[in-house]
């Protein structure tokens, strides 16, 4: 059976999309977060702030290939896990665990040493931390879509 060229092209597009996997960000995913205005990736390594919290510093980098910019999506607490492969909903509470040091992206009321705004650090041991590690995904629609902006 011979397919029309347009239908054949559509089938190839659908097969290509199917091969890319889900278009939604899922629990357990390892990802890089980039500030879309400044093209800077969220970055951390095992270096402590010299002031403020004294916890692991979180900065930004323009380097594309740096393993210290990888973060894993986890449930909001050790007791309330999100199931690996389950799409992350807009409004869902999550933790972002730094893949190299296993510390959580953390917020608290210390001033940042550079901007004097709220300090962001990496905190906890082996992914365990506290309520300052819980983030709410702000996005459009029902689910966090790959390559879509979030807050």
Can you tell me about this structure?
The protein has a single domain, classed as Trefoil (Acidic Fibroblast Growth Factor, subunit A) (Trefoil). β7 (104-111) and β8 (118-123) form a beta hairpin. The protein starts with a helix and ends in a 15-residue tail after the last strand. 10% of the residues lie in helices and 30% in strands. The protein has one helix at residues 5-19, and strands at 30-31, 34-35, 40-48, 56-61, 71-74, 93-98, 104-111, 118-123, 135-136. The protein is built from one helix and nine strands. A five-stranded antiparallel β-sheet has the order 2-3-4-8-7, with no helix packed on it. The chain is mainly β. Residues 47-66 are annotated as: Disordered. InterPro entries: MIR_dom_sf, MIR_motif. Residues 22-76, 85-140 form the MIR domain.
Short summary of the structure?
With 151 residues, the protein is mainly beta.
Characteristic key phrases:
10% helix; MIR_dom_sf; 1 helix; globular; MIR domain-containing protein; disordered N terminus; four-stranded antiparallel β-sheet; MIR_motif; repeat; mainly beta; single chain; five-stranded antiparallel β-sheet; 151 residues; signal; Trefoil (Acidic Fibroblast Growth Factor, subunit A)
Note the beta-strand portion: 25-35%
As for the number of domains, it is 1
Give the CATH topology: Trefoil (Acidic Fibroblast Growth Factor, subunit A)
Distance, first to last CA: 49 Å
Shape type: globular
- The total beta strand count reads 9
Give the % helix. Answer: under 10%
Q: Biggest sheet, open or closed, and with what strands and sense?
A: 5 strands, antiparallel
CATH architecture: Trefoil
Integer-rounded radius of gyration: 19 Å
Structural class: mainly beta
Q: According to CATH, what is the class?
A: Mainly Beta
| Strand ordering within the main sheet | 2-3-4-8-7
Helices and strands, in N-to-C order?
A: HEEEEEEEEE
Average pLDDT, rounded to a whole number, is 86
How many helical elements? 1
């Amino acid at each position: 059976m011979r397919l029309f060229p347009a239908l054949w092209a559509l089938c190839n597009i659908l097969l290509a999309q199917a091969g890319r996997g889900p278009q939604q960000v899922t629990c357990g995913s390892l990802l890089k977060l980039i500030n879309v205005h400044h093209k800077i990736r969220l970055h951390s390594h095992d270096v402590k702030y010299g002031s403020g919290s004294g916890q692991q510093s979180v900065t930004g980098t323009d380097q594309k290939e740096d393993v210290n910019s990888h973060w894993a999506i986890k449930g909001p607490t050790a007791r309330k896990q999100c199931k690996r492969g389950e799409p992350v909903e807009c409004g869902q509470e999550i933790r972002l665990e730094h893949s190299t040091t296993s510390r959580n992206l953390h917020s608290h009321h210390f001033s940042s040493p550079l901007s004097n705004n709220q300090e962001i650090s990496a905190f906890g041991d082996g992914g365990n931390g506290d309520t300052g590690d819980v983030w709410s995904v702000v996005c459009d629609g029902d689910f966090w879509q790959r390559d879509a902006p979030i807050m």
